[in-house]
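Ops channel
N.P.: pipeline sanity check, posting one input/output pair.
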């Protein structure tokens, strides 16, 4: 089992994204937009040098925890978010009801 990466993740509302400072001048990001009680996750990006280290999943966990804390329904447009939510039943209650059907999770 590999060690968990250590980095800070923050919400940057001015840029509508969650950011992980990877300590080498690069950032991993999860872009979102807010609309009517929903958070729409549109894009996740991890720099190629940092792929495969669990950073994208850590970003998603942080972002979903923030959505839960703020009482927001989740609309995952980003394929990485979709795959994560499909694999993690404990997060599926956050989904916008219409998106449960889109993802086949009725």
């Amino acid at each position: 089992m590999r060690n968990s990466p250590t980095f800070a993740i923050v919400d940057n509302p001015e840029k509508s994204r969650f950011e992980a400072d990877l300590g080498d001048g690069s950032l991993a990001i999860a872009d979102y937009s807010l609309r009517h009680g929903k958070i729409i996750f549109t894009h996740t990006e991890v720099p190629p040098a940092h792929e495969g280290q669990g950073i994208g999943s850590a970003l998603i966990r942080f972002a979903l925890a923030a959505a839960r804390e703020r009482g927001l329904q989740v609309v995952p447009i980003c394929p990485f978010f979709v795959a994560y939510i499909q694999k993690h039943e404990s997060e599926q209650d956050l989904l916008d009801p219409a998106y449960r059907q889109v993802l086949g999770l009725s």
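N.P.: looks fine end to end. The longest helix spans residues 55-70.
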